[in-house]
Each structure stands twice: as structure tokens, then as C-alpha cells.
Write a structure and sequence with these properties.
alpha/beta; six-stranded parallel β-sheet; 46% helix; DNA-binding
Length: 486
DNA sequence: CGTTACACCTGTATAGGTGTAACGGTGCTATACT
């Protein structure tokens, strides 16, 4: 079998060797086992389901969280010369969708969101055709989004039971022990899954946390740091408004081509900004957590958290966007005493409390058409047969879990020990090399520029890469970007 | 917690101060309308 695998690797993908983890995952899939693959970003996860599909034939259904990710995958496969791939989503009208379902047997790969996959007509058709391999891409979404954001992710267990695929492959770059267990339980494959995991450590990313007295101190710190940082980079915020305001400030006061990015932007603007970032027309993106999944830019030199997230997974996902080219990069988090309350507030957002759950189950129509996210969530649970007690317990449990994660993550933020060791420990990993000056910063002094020098990322303001990266025309960009920044 | 929106008050300056409440993130799909 291994000879055949190698032949296909060369013929279809043009490679002579596998990257760590790939072969083991592929062998598991081909042996009709369920596999949970935890591989660092950029280590070739999509090959893990594409290659076995070519060997075993039949339909591979890939569950993907975002339409843009599905489209990326379709394009990537098309570029590899594969035409038997299709994405079923709401960008297509009903006629087009029906055409795809009717001709499903001619495809090798179907990319689909859990919401669409749960549709009766889609499930019925897939049961008819038969699913060889079920892939859950970005599988941490089951745990991260399932309960309180996209309840369809919780239905994947029931969906899988109906589809009865020969094997199920769950892929992610970040999953703590708890999240791993959660994924397997919710999919109903705890007893039958083989785990293939590699260290989530990103050794070329220097970890730094800067303690700031208040919001103004963060802004001051940004203004000091940015002119001396190698570009490009991402700055994360916990609110759209702040992201927008800081993008303007950086653009105007520091003259760095910057745009903001968040969930309220039209999809064509999102696409445009991504493209301009990819092609170096934009050097800094000020974003909420909407920016990230599917961003495949190799040379991002820094990720700054103006606001740190509320858990380890989000943090690791977000800093992991830096340094995919293997070059030295830096992850800087800003923390201020006021942040904890904001983080706490975010945990409760969109979660209906006990009173609302009770009211909803008594008089569901009272909330109809209010556009309320909590209502939509309750409606989804009700439609899937959850009673009041179950919903209450599920959401209460999730809230407690989130609070525990926040507490643990804040200990990490406040720590003066080796942050990499703490981070890795949370993912069940150990340090692969001893702590040194390129690992992380231990302590709370206010000299972050010194740290940049120490790891070789300090840029001299006069002869810096800011100008050279722009081909000597740094002042032309702001005009081009005006409509994005308005 | 920090910021913002807005009702209310004062008492004629139809604006400015004050108190209170709400907000702050992530996306799929279906449906109704232009």
C-alpha cells in the first residue's frame, strides 16, 4: 500500500516526501479508521484527505466553516487539475443546488457547511450515493462554536450516524485535551478514533506580553513599537470600532498602509483587503477575530493583541498566523487591568440566560423577528428537539467552561515564568528546546524595544524596511486606500 | 471596565450638562423585498 501512496503523492501532488504526520493520517484513513489529526498550521492538512480520496475513490465530504474556505479549496484543487470538486452553499440558487445534488455521483469532493449538510434533502441524497470519507476541517469549531454560536456543529454527530462514512477525519491546528475530548464526544467517535498529533509549538515566534496601565498606554506603546517592527503584521482587537479607529491612527500618524477588517464589512471589501494584504499593498491589518481562518500569508512578522482573546485556542490560532515562512517573528500581547471585565463581558454575549430560556419555551413567538442572536440560537435548539432543561444545562455548562478557560488564560497572561512552557503545557505538549532569549520574555518591565533588538527584529527608523518594502513610494498608498478607511 | 447613545433637565442660550442603560465577536441559511 505504501508504494501506491508514494506513487499518488508524486503523480498528483508532485512531492517525493511527506511532511510529519501526513503519512500516518493517510494510512489511518485508508485502513477505515477514524482519525483526529492535530498538525500545526501550514503543514499540509488538505493533502491528508485529498490523497486517500484518489486511492479509495468514492465521495469525500468536507465540512468547512466558511464559504470563503470552501471556495479556496475548490480553487486549489482546480489548480491541481482536479475538476471533480464542488461546493454546495447559499451563493448558488436553488436550481444550481438541485443540479449539483442530481449529479453528485460525478464528484470526488463535496465542500459544505454543517448547516447545509444537515438539510433533509442533502442528507437523503448523500445516503443514496454513499459517503466514503467524512472530513471535518477546522474541527475545533465543533467545540469552539458548537454550543453558543453555530448549533449546527452540534448536529454533526447525528449527521455522521446517518451518513455512515467508511472513515471520519477531523483536522485542526489547535486543540487542548479538553477540546479534543469534546470533538470526539460530540461526533460520537471517542472509542474508535486514532489520534495523530504533533507539537503545536511555533519555535520561531517570540512570545511577549506588555502590561499597560490603561488604553492610552496601549496607544502610546503601539506608536513606539510599530516604527521599529518588521512588517507586515496583524493587530487584533476585541471590538470593531477600536479596530477601525486604530487603523486610521496608524495610517495617519505613522504613515503605514493600514486597513481595518471585521465581520460587518461587505464580503467584497473583505476580499479586497485580503488581496491587498497578500500583495504587500497593505502592511498592517487592524482586525477583530473575523480575520484569520484561511489567511495563508507566509511572511507575517508580527501579531499584536491590542486586546488579548479569552482562551488559549484563540491565542494560539491568532499568533500562529505569524512566521509561517519559518523566519523569526513576534507575538506581542497588550494587557491592562481593565481588560478582564471586557473579556468576561464577551463570554456572556449572545448567550441567553435562564430567564430568557424559560420565557422562550413558554412563548417562543414573543421573540420572533427581533433579529436577536440568542433567540436564533434557542430556535435552532428547539427545532433540533432540545427541551428547556437540556438547553439550560448545555449553556450553563458552556459558560462555566468558558470562565474556567478565561481564568487559566489570565494566569498565563499575568505569569512571569516561561510563557511558551505554560502555553504548550495547556495543549499537552512539552518544550522541544530549553528556554532561551528567542523563546519568550519573562517579566514586566517597559522596554519592549530592547527585546526586538535581542531577537534581531529591531528596525532602525531611518533605514528601516518600511520604505524598502514599499518600493520607495510609501506616500502613494494612503490615497488608494481612502475608500477602505472611510 | 470604558465608551457611547439618549432621555431628561434647566430654563430660555432651542444648547450644554447629567444620569442611566446598553454595548462590546465569530457565520451559516432562508426569506422577503427591491
Amino acid at each position: 500500500m505504501n508504494t501506491q501512496i508514494k506513487t499518488v503523492l508524486k503523480a498528483k501532488f508532485g512531492y517525493d516526501h511527506f511532511r510529519p504526520g501526513q503519512l500516518q493520517i493517510i494510512q489511518g484513513v485508508l485502513a477505515r479508521q477514524n482519525v483526529l489529526g492535530i498538525l500545526p498550521t501550514g503543514s499540509g492538512k488538505s493533502l491528508c484527505y485529498q490523497l486517500p480520496t484518489y486511492i479509495q475513490g468514492g465521495l469525500t465530504v468536507v465540512v468547512s466553516p466558511l464559504i470563503s474556505l470552501m471556495q479556496d479549496q475548490v480553487i486549489q484543487l482546480n489548480l491541481q487539475g482536479e475538476k471533480r470538486v464542488i461546493s454546495l452553499n447559499s451563493t448558488l440558487n436553488m436550481v444550481e443546488q438541485q443540479a449539483i445534488l442530481s449529479n453528485l455521483s460525478q464528484y470526488l469532493f463535496l465542500l459544505i457547511a454543517p448547516e447545509t449538510l444537515g438539510r433533509r434533502d442533502v442528507l437523503a441524497r448523500l445516503q443514496q450515493i454513499g459517503v466514503q470519507l467524512l472530513v471535518i476541517d477546522e474541527a475545533h469549531c465543533i467545540s469552539q462554536w458548537g454550543v453558543d454560536f453555530r448549533p449546527s456543529y452540534l448536529q454533526l454527530g447525528a449527521i455522521r450516524a446517518k451518513l455512515r462514512p467508511k472513515s471520519t477525519l477531523m483536522l485542526t491546528a489547535t486543540a487542548t485535551q479538553r477540546v479534543q475530548q469534546d470533538i470526539l464526544e460530540k461526533l460520537g467517535v471517542s472509542a474508535t478514533t486514532q489520534k495523530v498529533s504533533f507539537s503545536v509549538d511555533r519555535a520561531n515566534i517570540f512570545l511577549d506580553v506588555i502590561q499597560c496601565a490603561d488604553d492610552q498606554a496601549k496607544i502610546d506603546q503601539l506608536k513606539v513599537l510599530l516604527p521599529h517592527l518588521q512588517l507586515p503584521g496583524i493587530i487584533y482587537f476585541a471590538s470593531r470600532q477600536k479596530a477601525q479607529a486604530m487603523a486610521q491612527l496608524i495610517q495617519q500618524e505613522l504613515g503605514i498602509p493600514t486597513a481595518y477588517y471585521h465581520g460587518a464589512l461587505a464580503s467584497k471589501d473583505r476580499y479586497l483587503i485580503q488581496q491587498r494584504f497578500m500583495t504587500h499593498q497593505l502592511q498592517v491589518i487592524c482586525a477583530t477575530n473575523a480575520f484569520g481562518m484561511g489567511i495563508n500569508k507566509k511572511d507575517i512578522r508580527f501579531v499584536i493583541h491590542y486586546h488579548l482573546p479569552t482562551n488559549f485556542e484563540s491565542y494560539l490560532q491568532e499568533i500562529g498566523r505569524a512566521g509561517r515562512d519559518g523566519q523569526q517573528s513576534i507575538a506581542i500581547g497588550f494587557n491592562s487591568p481593565a481588560d478582564y471585565q471586557r473579556q468576561l463581558a464577551l463570554l456572556h454575549m449572545g448567550l441567553p440566560d435562564a430567564t430568557m430560556i424559560k420565557l422562550f419555551y413558554q412563548q417562543p413567538n414573543k421573540f420572533a423577528n427581533t433579529g436577536d442572536a440568542a433567540f436564533e440560537l434557542l430556535q435552532a435548539y428547539q427545532q433540533n428537539g432540545f427541551d428547556q432543561g437540556q438547553v439550560q444545562e448545555l449553556l450553563q455548562h458552556k459558560l462555566v467552561e468558558k470562565q474556567q478557560e478565561l481564568t487559566a488564560f489570565n494566569q498565563f497572561i499575568q505569569s512571569q515564568a516561561c510563557r511558551r512552557q505554560l502555553l504548550l503545557a495547556h495543549f499537552g505538549d512539552e518544550l522541544t528546546r530549553p528556554h532561551d532569549e528567542k523563546c519568550c520574555y519573562q517579566g514586566f518591565d517597559q522596554q519592549p524595544l530592547m527585546r526586538l533588538k535581542q531577537i534581531g527584529l529591531y528596525v532602525d527608523q531611518q533605514s528601516g524596511s518600511n520604505q524598502t518594502a514599499l518600493g520607495g513610494q510609501p506616500r502613494k498608498w494612503p490615497q488608494i486606500l481612502r475608500h477602505i478607511l472611510e
